[in-house]
Structure prediction request, 50 residues.
Amino acid sequence: MKQLEAKIDSSDKMKLIDEVESIKHRLVVLEKIITDKGYEVNEEINKLKG
Prediction:
């Protein structure tokens, strides 16, 4: 990891940190959608239709 840190400048490091934070936020949103009971019911209805 130290080798990687040595090869990137602080600007690139900040971009990577921002991107990771964005991905974490998107993951939380997706987890909420997937665990939502309404979503599960909708999926079951779609399975029965198809």
